[in-house]
Amino acid sequence: MQIIVNAGNGSGGFFTWDVLDKLGADTFGSLHLNPDGMFPNHIPNPEEKIAMSLTRAAVLENKADLGIVFDTDVDRSGVVDSEGNPINGDRLIALMSAIVLMEHPGTTVVTDARTSMALTKFITNRGGQHCLYRVGYRNVIDKGINLNKDGIETHLMMETSGHGALKENHFLDDGAYMVVKIITEMVRMKLEGSEGGIHSLIKDLEEPLESAELRMVILSEPRYAKAKAFEVIEAFKTYIEQGYLPGWELDACGDCWVSDGCLVDTSDDPAAIDAYMYRAKVSEEENGEYGWVHLRQSIHNPNIAINLQSTIPGGCQYMAKVLRDRFLLPSGMDKILYINEIDKYARNGNLSTDA
Ligand SMILES: O=P(O)(O)OC[C@H]1O[C@H](O)[C@H](O)[C@@H](O)[C@@H]1O
């Protein structure tokens, strides 16, 4: 089997000489294996377009069976299949879910809540449960650990960023282990005489038509930013609960009773957490449920991240408009937030031009 590793000049080169080569794989054509903190080729990140497209090119040129993209410290990964299909983000979660659900039917899969509605469908169609949780790989993994403690069998925890952990691997945040699972499945499929590559495992995963991420900087001294962001997120929840945004409803993820910090935190006294968030599912008469809006505190910076996803054209722009006109402006939140990105997106449907 020929496997291309793109370590992006991070620390992932070992996966070729210490793992794949020793197991007899052909790693010819691998890219950027030597560590170089200046990252002269591209940022080592499986979410990066350049990292994925260079790996894709190397896979196709070498007619390799698989391409692997690691981040700097190998706790995140993405892959490219033999046909050059990039598998990262939701697709990687779907692929790992398909593998883990074959081994553990009915298991719960924890992800951050920026995943697509189609991913939830993909997991539940295979008999799994999808637990949507807070952004931050530590949050996602800890949620899985707690679910297991509470008797809910949870074997996979993954973030859209490519971070991921498995129960069988002691809940370690480990991009290399994910890839090992994928390679093992590829070998199993090959031995079974299966024609389709690993992509065939996720061929029924639908792609969201539109998705966007926007940021609103919090206008305050950094030390008060956390409290202000909390205020905004809670006001967002209240506005939805009180029906000020027609067709918007707080999203929930099933009947699990461990709801502390979840999409809908039913606890009267929510635990102090590092990244408050809510996701609203959005419907309209003509199209039914067509998208969602996810509002959360950034983990690193004094801002609020808004993620939007839609299955109909123009849906994200419309949701941004509603968010601005029915929540941010009437609630006065525009006084504590810099809303220029959302305003621009609401007017243009993108951020690249000024109206
Ligand atoms: O809050 P942000 O700035 O968007 O960052 C969000 C990201 O934060 C960290 O890097 C975590 O490791 C990731 O798990 C998370 O996705």
UniProtKB/TrEMBL annotation:
Cofactor(s) listed in the protein's UniProt record: Mg(2+)
Q: Which keywords fit this entry according to its UniProt record?
A: Phosphoprotein
Supply the SUPFAM superfamilies for this chain. Phosphoglucomutase, first 3 domains
Q: Name one GO molecular function term.
A: phosphoglucomutase activity
- Which EC number(s) does UniProt give? 5.4.2.2
Q: Which domain of life is it from?
A: Eukaryota
Q: Sorted alphabetically, which Pfam families does this protein's record hold?
A: PGM_PMM_II, PGM_PMM_III
What are the Alpha-D-phosphohexomutase alpha/beta/alpha domain coordinates in residue numbering? 2-84, 88-189
Which GO biological process annotations does it have?
A: carbohydrate metabolic process
Write out the catalysed reaction. Answer: alpha-D-glucose 1-phosphate = alpha-D-glucose 6-phosphate
Which Gene3D superfamilies does the entry link to? Alpha-D-Glucose-1,6-Bisphosphate, subunit A, domain 3
Output the PANTHER family linked to this UniProt entry: PHOSPHOGLUCOMUTASE (ALPHA-D-GLUCOSE-1,6-BISPHOSPHATE-DEPENDENT), PHOSPHOHEXOSE MUTASE
Record's protein name: phosphoglucomutase (alpha-D-glucose-1,6-bisphosphate-dependent)
Species annotation: Capsicum annuum (Capsicum pepper)
